[in-house]
Design a protein that fits this description.
One of its GO terms (biological process) is peptidoglycan biosynthetic process. The protein has 509 residues and is of the alpha+beta class. It contains 17 helices and 13 strands. Strands 5-6-7-8-9-10-11-12-13 form a 9-stranded antiparallel sheet. Strands 1-4-2-3 form a 4-stranded antiparallel sheet. It starts with a helix and ends in a 7-residue tail after the last helix.
Length: 509
Amino acid sequence: MHYLRAFFSALLTTACSLVVVLGLAALLAGLALYHLRPSSTDWQTQLQIPLPAALAQVLDHQARAYLPSDWHLRSGGAPSTAISAQAKQANGPQQPQGKAALPATTAAAHPAVPNTVPSNGRASLIVPIGIAAAVDWITSPTVARLLGGTQWNTRYGPMAFEWDADSQTQTLVCQACSATLPALGSNPISLPELRIALQREGPHLQGQAQAGALQARWTALLQRQQLDIDLQFDEQPIRSVFAAFAAQIPEVEKAQIDGTLALQVQLSLPSWQLEMAPQISDFRVQGLGTETLPTAPNHCPRRNDLPVDVNGFLARAVIATEDQRFYQHPGYDLAAWQDSLQHNQTRNSSSNPSDPQGKPVQPLRGGSTLTQQLAKFVYTDGDRTALRKLRELLYTVELEQTLGKEGILRQYLERVYWGEGTCGAQDAAEHYFGQSPDSLNPAQAAWLAAMLHRPDYHAQRWTNTGRIDVRRTQWVLDQMRMLPPLRMNQRERQRWQRFVTENDWRRSR
């Protein structure tokens, strides 16, 4: 009897201790989440915390009045369930203004639905948190020490935390990490592993980042509305950059890549505004076989075997409209690329797909040179992704070495698409004007070149209206005149502008 009484006493003590510990843990967790609550102007996201259905029922019916109005429940895959009558209103305007890699799964806000939590299965508690407050909390030494050795699932991939007490350094290791940078395309950029070591002093963060052999130093300023990051890649082999994406760029294994790269990056979150200042030296590529391109099959139908004159009006017009620094750059144009980066970010920052007059926003600008365009439609696909641009760059650099400028221009003119199923200069000149490309006058050459950025659109417009895009063609003529060596004087330019304006330009068939 004595032993039985002692057993029940120990059991009761253990149960009470467990209840107290769980209660304290729940209280601390609740206080932490409450501390992370954002204001309406904060950079914020939402945590999705899995709950047993029984606990969700308790929260739904018993503790509703004690929980913040912007916390709500979601049952299974259904829309979220409001905890209080005010949750529906709170959920409306307070949409997340940004997202960050946090130690929990994030969830977008959902409209409130009637208060119903299933009696079986699982539910989730949706809690808004401020990103800046969360980063500040996670990087504090006390919390960083507790997080050390743990792993969390984030929207960017599994994130493991490490803590070095001697150097007060927290390291985040993201396996199979991926993120989307709007400035570099809509598809995510993936890395097998990304290690970010950080040290913190007040709102200032600093440390190192490493992806394979690619290394960088970084500093950041943490504010309630944003995080501004400066990333500095000291001069290092260009091959290290490509090796970080070797699993997704098959050319890395067979290509010999030489040269060095230094890069300075400024990134602002949550807007994802990106500025990059690369410096490339002695970039060379061998082993991709681009020297065989002139004898490789051409899918474009050729009307005769005469090569296109790379010094004629059409070649000049194409350079004027597509790549005015064609003879100056080494295949890639860093200035044009940076211009397109800023253009695309300005375009993506627009919340409306159309301007006030209902016209569509400007299309994405690629910043590609003629050599890069040739590499794209011969060797890579047409997806607007950063990885495709890296693959394209390898072929671009080797094409410059193997074919030279005139060889690249000739191959471009023989292979580029010109709308309505036509491709190549021979086919296009005969299709639209019934002439050979070398017999085109400047205005005709300018019109064909003006088509290249949207060939099907311009061809359809010509079919529907019987007229050309006069303004764009005149712009191409102006660009042609400014290219050295001069092939048109002022009187000739005015003559062709009048010719463009005054003629109906019915197409020859």
